[in-house]
Q: What sequence folds into this?
């Protein structure tokens, strides 16, 4: 049994509400004929992929819809077979509530792969580049919620000793990783073996919170079945937010990911169990990431549970699959109750980041009282920030101070908001401040670019003028010299001079004629 | 466990934790303790409502957050029992109107309102503020009728007969007259360790404080640091010269030590907020209490110590940021 390093702080929540949804086996949802899937192009943190299909195209399940562009990007694929009926902006699950470009796919109900499955790769016989490329082409991104393209993570630059499989699932309500580990432990382990091979790590620690005993034993069985000494299932205490990648890295290795750094900087790479299974599916089965496990839970859902959902399925369809809601206008959020993302419409589609749909009665809004500086927020902050100071400075828009208090180390786990006796939505302030600072940086950057461009132009104009003036001056002195020399010159030179004069006049006349025939655009240069 | 309280619940818990101390004070000093509490509460709520009205703030959430009541209780317990009504009114005026609302109300005041009220009264009405009744047990020296006439104006012709210097007073005066602490402890009005009755009052507030720690209403940093700061200095000087300086236990169980350490210094709004900042804040208060008690012009020193350390809070908070995860050090 490996040593664990307990989180110095964090929350022990009273109720995790996990048993609502983790009792029944996961049901797969297959789109029926005529059903519309709304597939956003941008489902990861990175560059938007390039659209590969056109309106009216028939696509098979797993067919590439958009190809990754740039260093950090991921492909998007059709989650079932059918026809592309629209390529248009649609409201997606995002803080801003703004619309983004989506491909609308009308399912034909056949769920036909055609021959889109990629050839199976034997990872031990394949070079790293091909493996990384496969992961990228298959659109594999972090399924824990951060949706960072996995191929970038696997293309490690510095040596990594430990692979951490994140099966902590510390958020209340969410049980999709729990069910996934129970139902597909072998595939997860197989995926982890591929990743171990790719990153050349020595060991794989699988961190699971102790409130998931079935998942723990399933994973342990899968590990003992392959008899691979590098693997170890580590049971960790149930404390929120132990499933944060930085937190889990600390719990399992005692090492901290440096601020602003990546997991690899601590010698450990942390990958969600769902992502690991997707890697397995991409490499071994040649299947792109087109569906994921989603928990549907909350107090206002009739039959909570987990579903294997094709990406693009509207939330309303997911609610219907769970026997509908018990109330007429439930409050829909994506994610667990600690970091909920409010959904403005039930037509918002499931994306790669969707781990949970919560269907709950609308929250009774508590009166927000002034901050009494009690410091409870600081007591629970897993990154040891001073949330209260951040709040004061964010509120007064003192962005320099906000940064001095390390705003960008905030993982938005929601612990501070949860314990705040004044019910101040602290995390909302941090999100606002982060967006504000990013916007400021952006504006500053643009201004900087504009300024350098302007300066360059100015300099160029000046240079041209200067060169012209120099030329003119040179010319003048040359003329003067000529004049002075001609004064004391002979008749011979006079004749020469006359010839030159004549030639000059001819040239002038020719120039004038030219100027007349062409447009007058050259006037300025005279 | 991290219980999540509302603001009102936090204040409520503190008020509840005051009960043992109030009960013991009631036993030793009688009805004056209650009249203080009742009058202070009434004035506090009146001023609070008035200020909220003038500042166009909603009345309901702020009147029911218990913060004004808590300020009232803390000041009431610090005032001598049987204080005349106008003294309490002036104290609450300073506390609620000047120290709290003129700075923006709940959460915005840099100084502890109760202590501003106390300090203002001590400076303005030194005579009234030092007339502590003798601790007599059995619910004090006066019945309810005499209490009311004392509080509401007519006073008592022979009030001086009922009052007595507190242990901190006697100790200070006695030491100036070159008596030793052990000699002084034998004189009338002294108890086993501190002043008669006061040691029990302090123990009762300690019990309330411990309960708050248990309920996680407060953290250990401030109270422990206050007591530590006071004990350290007291021990140092006592060891140096036991004939000139009373022992640390005397300081711990006299005056408003426990009330100050657990209930006053821990006011979240005006205290430091970082763990290290809290410790320094508390040590500062404890140290200042000793310094003012020993060499200053006032017998007790909680109010001034707290106010002085309130001033240091912004600096403390700024320089004691905890190390953030993944960073080498703060600042």
A:
């Amino acid at each position: 049994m490996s040593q664990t390093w307990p989180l110095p702080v964090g929350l022990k929540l009273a109720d995790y509400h996990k048993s609502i949804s983790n009792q029944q086996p996961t049901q797969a949802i297959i789109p029926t004929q005529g059903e519309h899937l709304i597939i956003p192009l941008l489902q990861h943190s990175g560059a938007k992929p390039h659209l590969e299909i056109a309106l009216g195209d028939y696509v098979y399940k797993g067919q590439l819809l958009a190809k990754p562009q740039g260093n950090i990007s991921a492909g998007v694929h059709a989650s079932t077979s059918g026809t592309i009926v629209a390529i248009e902006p649609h409201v997606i699950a995002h803080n801003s509530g703004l619309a983004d470009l989506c491909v609308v796919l009308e399912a034909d109900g056949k769920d036909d792969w055609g021959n889109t499955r990629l050839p199976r790769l034997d990872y031990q016989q394949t070079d790293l580049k091909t493996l990384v490329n496969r992961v990228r082409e298959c659109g594999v991104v972090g399924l824990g919620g951060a949706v960072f393209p996995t191929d970038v993570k696997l293309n490690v630059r510095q040596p990594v000793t430990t692979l951490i499989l994140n099966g902590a699932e510390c958020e209340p309500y969410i049980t999709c990783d729990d069910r996934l580990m129970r139902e597909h432990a072998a595939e997860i382990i197989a995926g982890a073996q591929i990743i171990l091979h790719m990153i050349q790590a020595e060991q794989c620690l699988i961190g699971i919170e102790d409130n998931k005993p079935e998942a723990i034993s399933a994973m342990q069985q899968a590990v003992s079945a392959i008899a691979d000494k590098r693997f170890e299932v580590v049971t960790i205490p149930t404390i929120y937010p132990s499933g944060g990648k930085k937190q889990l890295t600390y719990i399992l290795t005692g090492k901290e990911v440096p601020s602003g750094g990546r997991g690899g900087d601590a010698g450990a790479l942390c990958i969600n169990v769902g992502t690991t299974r997707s890697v397995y599916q991409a490499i071994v089965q040649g299947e792109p990431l087109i569906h994921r496990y989603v928990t549907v839970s909350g107090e206002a859902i009739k039959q909570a549970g987990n579903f294997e959902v094709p990406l693009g399925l509207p939330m309303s369809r997911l609610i219907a699959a769970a026997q509908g809601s018990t109330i007429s206008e439930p409050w829909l959020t994506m994610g667990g109750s600690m970091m909920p993302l409010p959904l403005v419409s039930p037509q918002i589609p499931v994306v790669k980041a969707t781990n949970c749909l919560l269907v709950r009665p609308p929250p009774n809004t508590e009166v927000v009282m002034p901050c009494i500086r009690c410091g409870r927020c600081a007591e629970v902050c897993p990154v040891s920030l001073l949330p209260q100071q951040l709040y004061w400075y964010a509120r007064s828009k003192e962005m320099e101070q906000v940064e001095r208090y390390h705003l960008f180390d905030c993982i938005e786990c929601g612990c501070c908001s949860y314990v705040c006796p004044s019910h101040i939505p602290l995390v909302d302030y941090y999100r606002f401040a982060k967006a504000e600072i990013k916007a400021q940086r952006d504006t500053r950057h643009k201004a900087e670019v504009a300024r350098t461009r302007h300066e360059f132009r100015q300099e160029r104009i000046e240079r041209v003028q200067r060169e012209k003036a120099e030329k003119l001056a040179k010319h003048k002195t040359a003329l003067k010299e000529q004049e002075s020399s001609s004064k004391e010159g002979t008749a011979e030179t006079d004749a020469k001079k006359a010839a030159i004069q004549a030639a000059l006049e001819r040239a002038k006349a020719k120039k004038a004629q030219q100027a007349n025939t062409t447009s007058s655009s050259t006037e300025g240069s005279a | 466990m991290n219980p999540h309280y509302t603001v009102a619940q936090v204040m409520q818990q503190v008020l509840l934790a005051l009960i043992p101390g109030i009960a013991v004070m009631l036993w030793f000093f009688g009805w004056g303790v209650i009249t203080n509490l009742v009058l202070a509460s009434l004035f506090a709520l009146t001023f609070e409502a008035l200020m909220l009205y003038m500042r166009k703030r909603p009345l309901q959430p702020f009147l029911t957050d218990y913060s004004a009541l808590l300020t009232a209780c803390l000041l009431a317990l610090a005032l001598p029992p049987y204080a005349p009504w106008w003294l309490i009114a002036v104290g609450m005026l300073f506390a609620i109107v000047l120290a709290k609302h003129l700075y923006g109300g709940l959460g915005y005041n840099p100084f502890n309102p109760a202590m501003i009220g106390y300090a203002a009264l001590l400076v303005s009405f030194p005579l009234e503020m030092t007339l502590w009744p003798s601790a007599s047990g059995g619910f004090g020296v006066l019945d309810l009728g005499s209490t009311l006439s004392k509080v509401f104006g007519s006073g008592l012709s022979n009030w001086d007969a009922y009052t007595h210097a507190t242990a901190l007073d006697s100790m200070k005066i006695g030491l100036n007259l070159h008596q030793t602490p052990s000699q002084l402890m034998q004189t009338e009005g002294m108890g086993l360790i501190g002043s008669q009755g006061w040691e029990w009052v302090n123990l009762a507030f300690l019990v309330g404080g411990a309960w708050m720690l248990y309920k996680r209403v407060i953290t250990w940093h401030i109270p422990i640091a206050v007591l530590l700061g006071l004990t350290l200095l007291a021990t140092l000087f006592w060891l140096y010269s036991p004939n000139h300086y009373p022992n640390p236990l005397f300081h711990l169980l006299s005056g408003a030590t426990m009330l100050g350490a657990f209930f006053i210094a821990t006011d979240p709004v005006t205290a430091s907020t970082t763990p290290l900042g809290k410790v320094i804040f508390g040590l500062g208060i404890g140290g200042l209490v000793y310094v003012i008690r020993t060499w200053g012009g006032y017998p007790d020193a909680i109010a001034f110590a707290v106010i002085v350390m309130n001033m240091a809070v912004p600096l403390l908070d700024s320089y004691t940021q905890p190390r953030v995860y993944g960073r080498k050090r703060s600042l």
About this structure: Chain A touches chain B at residues 11-12, 246, 250, 256-261, 366-367, 369-376, 378-380, 382-386, 388-389, 405-406, 409, 418-423 (CB under 8 Å). Residues 248 and 369 of chain A are 34 Å apart (CA to CA). The first strand of chain A starts at residue 27 and ends at 28. Residues 520-526 of chain A have pLDDT under 50 and may be disordered.
